[in-house]
Amino acid sequence: MERRDFLGSAASAAALSLLPHSLFAENTSRRIRFESPFDGAVIHKRSGFPLKNVVYEGQTAKLLNIEIKGSFSPDPMLRLKLVDSKNPQKEIPITIAGNKFSATAPLTDLLTTLTASLVDSNGKTVDSAFTRIIWLKNSRRRFRFFIDDNIYCIRDIQTKKYKSLFDSVYMNNLRNFHRKYGIKVMLNMFYTTPDKDFTLSDFSDRYKSEWKENADWLRLAYHSRAEFPDRSLLTATRQGLNEEIELIEGEILRFAGKDSLAPPTCLHWGTIDRKLLSLFVQKGTKVFCNGVWPLSKPEFLDKYQVPRAASYYLSKNDAWYDFETGLLFASGEVCCNILENTPEKLVSLLKKASGEKNVAELLSIMTHEPYFWPFHKDYIPDHWDRLDACFRFVVENGYQPAFPQDEQFSALVDTLRKKKQGNELDRLPRN
Fold first, then answer.
1. Which of 14, 91, 164, 346 is surrounded by the most beta carbons within 10 Å?
2. Dihedral-angle region of residue 49 (phi above 0 means left; psi in -120 to 50 means alpha; beta otherwise)
3. In degrees, to the nearest 5, what angle opens at C-alpha 387 toward C-alphas 155 and 203?
4. What does the alpha-carbon distance between residue 47 and residue 195 come to, in Å, rounded to a whole number?
């Protein structure tokens, strides 16, 4: 499913339209609602709405002016005011039309908190709501590429006893793409094959120097213990999950070394009990990526149990920062192993995304390993051609390669987490 297919469901769209903007209890107001910017929105100088314009100082963006829209419950005894938390004594001029309000406000810092409040004649706050906006400064257009469900390639190398990793057709084709297009590759790893005839523990460490030599573009990360069951992390315990991650990461360290090990950025099916996300934060994850699918639990969508309003936002934007977990969630464009995704269709999808300002900054190309292998029931003969078409398009259109947990997002998350540790994110108006 492409990331916008979810929006094609009338039932889902109707359900989302009933949801409040506020995601968590601390930001819940029955009388005030920010429609934009969305709480946790990540904005840059090439963004679309709510970005209004950019003010430059030479070649450097000095500030971003953004449009603010919202609704409230009018009360003749109360006045609506809007402020920036950095300067709460200076009100931002607002326009009111019925129960709607709008304004223009500048972003001058990485993090801006806007608060709308209903106040009485004595200036006492009766109700309030806030929204937090993140400015990704010095952003550049980039693309990421990763392959899920890897284990057969490792088994192939071991059973064939190749002299080099790149005697493997699979690994050699990836290296050729790196040489041709400069791509960076993340291989998200299983511990065992579906038939349990091979595990990472069976893999030799004889190629360790080669893994290290290529770690600038080729890295490995935890994905799940195995392909089945599909959604094991929904019922996993913290201890069980920790042991599973340490098992897989321990094997990667053994046979490939620390330079080749990356923090997890894409879990199998993306499903996990939300309470367990803090474990990945401890293990270095800053970014999770890719896709929204419905789940049976009505209050969440499948991927990482991101609240529905945020999943809806992600379907139309590159990234959203979750202040509750301290994780940045990034969406994606194309999955190359979907049956109908011919090379031509994949290029068409990427071209469309590159023309939409709010999703054009970071394009995502991903696929799954089993579809490369002729012995697999779902083998795709033109799988490599599909990738070639995608890489050619992004490179020819000025996109630079990045790992899923790319430097720009990582630096952004680091700064936001430090602000939280310094209580800067807690200095918000309370009712």
1. 346
2. beta
3. 15
4. 47
Please report where in the chains the tokens 């913290």 appear, as a residue: 238
Is pLDDT larger for residue 400 or for residue 305?
Answer: 400
Mean pLDDT of the chain: 89
Residue identified by tokens 């059973």 is: 159
Predicted local confidence at residue 232, as pLDDT: 87
Closest by CA position to 177, among listed 318, 332, 387: 387
DSSP symbol at 259: G
Q: Measured between alpha carbons, how far is 29 from 425 in angstroms, rounded to an integer?
A: 18
Residue 323's nearest CA partner among 117, 133, 50 is 133
pLDDT per residue as tens digits for the range 90-108: 999 999 999 999 999 999 9
User: Is the bond into 429 cis (omega within 30 degrees of 0)?
Assistant: no
Confidence of residue 109 (pLDDT cuts 50, 70, 90): very high
Using pLDDT thresholds of 50, 70 and 90, give the confidence band for residue 28: low
- 290 closest CA partner among 353, 367, 235, 222: 367
Count of Cβ atoms closer than 10 Å to residue 324 Cβ: 13
Rg of the chain over all Cα atoms, to the nearest angstrom? 23
> What is the amino acid identity at position 180?
K
d(CA 133, CA 19): 20
